[in-house]
Please model this.
Amino acid sequence: MSNDTSTSAAGTYGDYSEATRRSIARSTLNGLMTWLGEPGLAAARESAGLQAMIDQHAASVRDALGDPESGPGAVPLAGYATGVRDALIEAEWQLPPTTELDWSSLEWPALRLIAICSLARAGGFV
Model:
C-alpha cells in the first residue's frame, strides 16, 4: 500500500480533510504529468542518459521527503512540486513548449519536475 499522506505537506493542504488533500494532490500531480511528465518520461525511455538524470533527481526528492519505505505519498509529492513551481515563478523561469525542448540538455527545474512525475507514477498516483 502506498504512503498517500504526510504531515510534512500540512502547510500546503492542512486546512482540508485527508480525502480532500489526497484528491487535490492527485489533481496537481496529474496536471504536472500531462504537461511535462508524459513527454519527459517518454523521452527518458529513449535515452539512458536522460533516465539516469531523472533517477538522480528522484533520489534527491525522496531524500528531501524523508524517503519512507513505501515511497513518498501523493500529498508530499504534490507539495514539493508546488514549492518548486512557486520558486520557478518567483525566479521568472519559463520552460519552452515541450515540443521545442532539447531533451538531451534539460535544465535542473525540468529534470526535477519530471522526477516528481516518475515518483508519482511509481506510487500509483497518476
About this structure: Confidence is low (pLDDT under 50) at residues 1-10. The chain has five helices and no strands.
